[in-house]
Amino acid sequence: MVFLDLALNALASGIALGCIYALVALGLAITFGLLHIPNVAHPALVIAGAYAVVLANMRGIDPILAALVLTLPFYAVGLAFYEFYARAFERRGRGNTLQSLTLFFGVSLIVEIALVVAFGTDLRSVSVPYVGRSFELGLIVLPYRFLVPALLAPAVILGLWLYMTRTHSGLAMRAVAHDERALSISGHDPVAIKRHAFGLATALAVLAGAALVIVGPVDPFAGRVHLGRVFAVVVLAGLGSIPGTLAAAIIIGVAEAFVTAFLSPSWAPGVAFAILLGTLALRPNGIFGTAR
Amino acid sequence: MNGLVVEGLRAGYGAVNVLHDVSITVGEGEFVALLGMNGNGKSTLLNAIMGFVKPSAGSIRLFWDGQSVPLAGQAPHRIVDLGIGYVPEGRRLVPNLTVEENLKLAARGRAKNDFAENLDFCFETFQILKERRRQLAGTMSGGQQQQLAIARALMTSPRIMVIDEPSVGLAPIVVDQMIATIKELQTKRRMTILMAEQSFFQAVEVASRAYVLAHGSIVHAIEHGLDAEAMETIRNAMMGVE
Amino acid sequence: MSWRNFLLVALLVAAAGMVLPRVLENPYYFFAGYVVLQYVVIATGWNILGGYAGYTNFGTSAFFGAGVYTAAFLIKAFEAPLLVQVLAAAGIGMLLGLVTGYLTLRIQGVYFAIATVALVVVLETVVHNSDYLGGASGLTTIAPPAPAWFAGPTQYVFCVMLVLALVAVGIARAIEHSWVGRSLRAIRASEPAAEACGVPTLRMKLAACAISGGVIAMAGAPYPYYASHVDPLSAFSLTIGLNALAMPLIGGTRSWIGPVLGAVLLASVQQITTVTISSEFNILAVGLMLIAFVVLAPEGILGLVAELRERVGRRRATT
Amino acid sequence: MSISRRELGKLAGGISIAMAAPAIWTSARAQNQPIKIGCTVSQTGALAGTKNSQIGYELWRDNLNAAGGLLGRKVELVIYDDQSSPAQVPGIYSKLIDVDKVDFLFTPYGANLTATMMPLAKQRDKVAIGILTLASNDKVKYDKFFQAAPWGPNGAEDWARGFFDLAQTQGVKKIAIAAADTEFSKTAAAGGKRVCEQAGIEVVSYDIYPPTLNDFSAILRNLRAKAPEAIFLCSYPPDSTAMVRGLTEIGLPASVRLFGGGMVGPQYASLMQTLGKNLNGIINFHLYVPEPTLKFPGIEGFLAEYEKAAKAANVDPLGFYIPPFCYAAGQIISEAVKATGSIDQKKVADWLHANPVETIVGKIRFNELGDWTERRVLMAQFQGVDDSGLDQFRKAGKQVILDPPAFKSGELVPFAKARS
Fold first, then answer.
1. pLDDT of res. D213
2. Which residue in the set D51, D248, D265 is minimally distant from A121, CB to CB?
3. CB of D280 less than 8 A from some CB of A
4. Is residue D17 very low, low, confident or very high in pLDDT (cuts 50, 70, 90)?
5. Do the domains spanning D34-150+295-364 and D156-286+383-419 agree at the CATH topology level?
6. What is the pLDDT of residues A241-275, one digit of tens each?
7. What residues of A are in contact with residue D238 (Cβ under 8 Å)?
8. Mean per-residue pLDDT of chain C
9. Between B49 and A282, whose confidence is greater?
10. Torsion-angle region of residue B216: left (phi > 0), alpha (psi -120 to 50) or beta?
11. Which CATH number fits domain C3-318: 2.60.40, 1.10.3470, 2.40.160, 2.130.10?
């Protein structure tokens, strides 16, 4: 009975955690998975999003509502950011893995410091009515502060997936990773599509930020612990696969939760990455990726 | 008169100039073949028309409905939007999208309103695409992909179709069908077509006029009818450059 | 520079380094110098795989940390001398490089970079769960005293690092000028093409991983001696991974001199800003510097110099 | 490309002038040189939350200088950012000692950072005051190290002993221990386990979890079957928050009567404000709370000045946890220098070993390892906290001291009752 209790709850909280990881990784699934831009600044942007949500929440606005509204300015920031990136390399026809990684590292340092200067280094959190209460279903007890942001993930992913399969710009976004010329021939401006995709990814950062800050307080350097894991999720998913991102994130979340519950919490971080190493060695295209 | 006019075009890659003073015209309803062996500048000329290569001199203009629009210097997607449909060498489909998605992707700008009509026409012309509309483009055979590439160009409601080497990499029997279909487009749908081709037997069968490119220059312009004499000239010109 | 001149310069630098503690009394410069030299070794080691072969190692701190903990283990278990620590660390680093290379044989580009990140986390977790190595609390490593010839332990460990730097640069230069270097450059340009030209790409990649890993781990070996305390957060620090990328980028990745230049420049700037600006703006300065280099000099200082030369040459040709 | 020895000397000279400019500038005023105290503060990185320690130092310096300085000389602070990275520390402290020529040292915050500067301080023979570092001198055994924080002798084992003393008086037989995988927490947890073994309390579970773990429900659930009567938790701010929330979300086994002990986080204003009434009933360590039993001379004035400075610096507005002990660290030095009339390191250290020091955190006596002779880590229980914000914590009665007995300011309320 105890075993069943632990297993069911580990499964539930693992799925919830996985959903939240998926939200954090989603922007990267676009910038890295579709545009092949290794945006290591994404976790820092997520934390910036969390701080923006905290600011709005101080005026009494619900974090998720605030995040939805804030996606607009973040989208604009993403457009500007891409424009800078494109001017920095792409149109010059340069920009390899090393250069982009270094550039985005520089950006994430700047984002972190900007947050320190603006907000100080204390932990910040949001107040929502459902914090401290739990959803109960049989043996399963899941805190609302996990459940609510976790439910955000499938909703956002469904929306994104519909967008990617049903709309012109969504189709174009999926095409841009493979062949820019194919897009031009179809009458699309590849640069505009990429800029739009980057804007979208940045807008998703604020939703992820809201999810994180509902789960627990954040400080300006909180993005760093997510860096490895989000890349792990995107690679496990197979580059650019949006539903795959959710599935991969849940696999990692559940693996962590089970190791925490049945083995020892201290092995949890390593196990997820061991899965990643194993996958890379055996199935380099990710679990859900198609052959390239 | 409606048509595409290229005048005194010079273009190339970096410091290397490939095209020297090239002038061609394609009038509405014509089927113009661009002939020449590999490496003589056919693809460069088409790429220049489509905006993928920036000309260093000369002009490319589209005359349509009494307007004259300069194409040189425009981005490729603008040129497509202005009415030049393009079937590139190597087909350049989006392999991870389905047949239908590839077609839908191309219905942009002017062509958006004609989407249903264009799609019907494409499926009518290329039955196999209708059957395989849900299949990923990357998993289809070469011939089917070539059909999809042509259909995609049709989806942009082109005024002029520019087709680059449709026969490359296809089995001879497939090539014959392909050429026949392209000819059909011109006769039935009154499409204006500029087609580059190195296998000139194929081209001369269907084209109404032809240009022969050698070393980046137009060495022959066959203006009226491809009779035996003209064909002899072309043959000699093409052999000569080898 | 010919081999003869290179060896001459290397010997001179080594000699100067040995004499320096007698001339320069203030130990601080040896503390700062040690860090700069440590990064020369790291950047040089990184560049063997990252620069020549084009495989971006994002998890440099896995190798560095492996070196640090190998040395710390040897101090705790056997009080082994520094030379033994360095050799053992290099050995472990090579082994780790081989394993990494083997696990990632079929992946390239950013995939490879991410696999190396995973390696950092896995190793860090192992150390965290090892009571013998002190876990999160770390391990105090009071090393045996320095040989009497040196003015103090810092001067000693500085000179050791200087020798390691010369060895690392020597290895990098030897690789660059041999068929191995040519093979790696071919891999960087295009792996299938290299394979087609008869380059044994897989074996070359494994070799580059092993050598690169060995050199980086070597850079970690004297750290327990230098800091007297090791902990997983410092040994597997993100900063090391970041600097290992940034330094070759700033210097230029095509030649052994690039990472050396980049490491000396960036590490010095970091050392100086730490004790001058010394606030959050210090990190801001580093961030801006990285972006400025990527945007304005994407091929690093070497690229800038080459461009400048070309421009001067053109001007001469026209006048 | 060979460099002569003379040129090398010049080069080195040039570099040292460039890098030591402030030191040279001050030595120009040779007769009335300020007394310099050097340290690092974690302005950036994981420990950046502790940067309010700088306000403690600065208020001490300003008050001292306003009162005429020390031995008629001004007091100057030299502070650098260590970026929360132990690797930075040896170099910076060498700069402080060898280039800036500081007279005394404060250690960085915490044991991991301090561990890399202790051998250096010992080697250069500088008096160093420890800033909330636990057990830093146990290995090095440096006779000029003095601890500003009230861990007491044998701190590694005993600093949280108050919690276990309370457990014993409450008749607790089974205890569960959970700790974050960080140096401070693990030291505390290991010490707690040993104390339990001595006291005959059974440790029914002992969990070490990674500091990045977001979800603590599994740990709390695992505890249910074990039915502990007390839970000793050593956590860091983010996980402290998650755990406290877990109390209401998952719930504790009904058997639990004492909860808390070694949580870092509920000392910080931002978290106290966030958690509000969720804190009620938790018994946790603290170093200072505004209870009537702790009215040391100067502490209230200090906190008032701190509040103003904290607002400007955008740091923790309460400042109960670290800053008073940074101020006290300064006082330890200034009192010793005043008493001996000298900045001689040996004289100052000998005096400190022999005499008690009056500070704003009370009278401190040091033992031979430089630790306080008496442990004065407070175990305080949150009582009657509501969600009204920060001001309530400035009043007495919200964090009632239960241990040590000498400072007891109220009675323990059973966990369940305190939360209702």
1. 64
2. D51
3. no
4. very low
5. yes
6. 888 899 999 999 999 888 888 887 778 878 878 88
7. 123, 216-217, 222
8. 88
9. B49
10. left
11. 1.10.3470
Chains contacting B (3+ CB pairs below 8 angstroms): A
Residues whose CB is less than 8 angstroms from the CB of residue D338 and which lie 6 or more positions away in sequence, other chains included: D70, D71
Q: B106 to chain A: nearest residue by CA? A: A186
**pLDDT recorded at residue A292:** 35
Give the span between the Cα atoms of D117 and B82, in whole angstroms.
71
Helix (H) or strand (E) holding C92: helix C82-103
Closest CA to C247 of C194, C192, C195, C289: C289
Per-domain boundaries in chain C = 3-318
Residue spans of the domains in chain D: they are 34-150+295-364, 156-286+383-419
Which stretches of D39-86 are DSSP H helices? 53-66
Q: For residues D370 and D128, what is the distance between their CA atoms, to the nearest angstrom?
A: 10
Question: Peptide bond before A265: cis, by omega within 30 degrees of 0?
Answer: no
**Max Cα distance, chain C (Å):** 72
Instruction: Flag whether residue D334 sits within 8 Å of chain C, measured between CB atoms.
Output: no
**D239 token code pair:** 């996980």
Amino acid at A216: G
pLDDT digits (tens, 9 = 90+) for C206-239: 999 999 999 999 999 999 999 989 999 889 988 8
In DSSP terms, B195 is beta-bridged to: B33, B163
Q: How many CA atoms lie within 13 A of A102 on its CB side?
A: 31
Residue B28, Cβ density class (10 Å: 0-12 exposed, 13-18 middle, ≥19 buried): middle
- Which candidate, D76, D80, D98, places its Cα nearest to that of D89? D80
A167 vs B: CB within 8 A: no
Extract the tokens encoding A163: 């967008």
| CA–CA dist C36, C34 (Å, integer) | 5
CATH topology of domain D156-286+383-419: Rossmann fold (3.40.50)
Q: What CATH superfamily classification does B1-83+160-165+192-242 receive?
A: P-loop containing nucleotide triphosphate hydrolases (3.40.50.300)
Closest CB to D1 among C9, C35, C128: C9
D160 touches C at CB < 8 Å: no
Asked if D185 and D212 count as a contact pair (C-beta separation under 8 A), the reply is no
Residue B88 backbone dihedrals phi, psi, to 5 degrees: -80, 165
- Within 8 A of A185 by CB-CB distance, chain B residues are 50, 76, 80, 86, 88, 92, 106, 152-153
Q: Does D44 touch chain A (CB under 8 A)?
A: yes
Asked if the Cβ–Cβ distance from C26 to D16 is below 8 Å, we say: yes
Return the structure tokens found at D220: 């709390």
User: Cβ neighbours of residue A162 under 8 Å, at least 6 residues apart?
Assistant: none
Q: Both tokens of residue D145?
A: 């190290």
| Domain parsing of chain A, residue ranges | 2-282
Question: What separation, in Å, do the N-terminal and C-terminal C-alpha atoms of chain D show?
Answer: 80
Contact indicator for D37, D103 with CB cutoff of 8 Å: yes
Q: Is residue C56 within 8 Å of C245, Cβ to Cβ?
A: yes
User: Are the CB atoms for D131 and D146 separated by under 8 Å?
Assistant: no
* Neighbour-count burial of D176, counting CB atoms closer than 10 A to its CB (0-12 exposed, 13-18 middle, 19+ buried): buried
Handedness of CA D399, D400, D403, D405 (dihedral sign): positive
- Taking contacts as CB-CB distances below 8 angstroms, the residues of chain D near A221 are 44-46, 48
Angle made by CA atoms D63, D94, D64, in degrees to the nearest 5: 5
CATH architecture of D34-150+295-364: 3-Layer(aba) Sandwich (3.40)
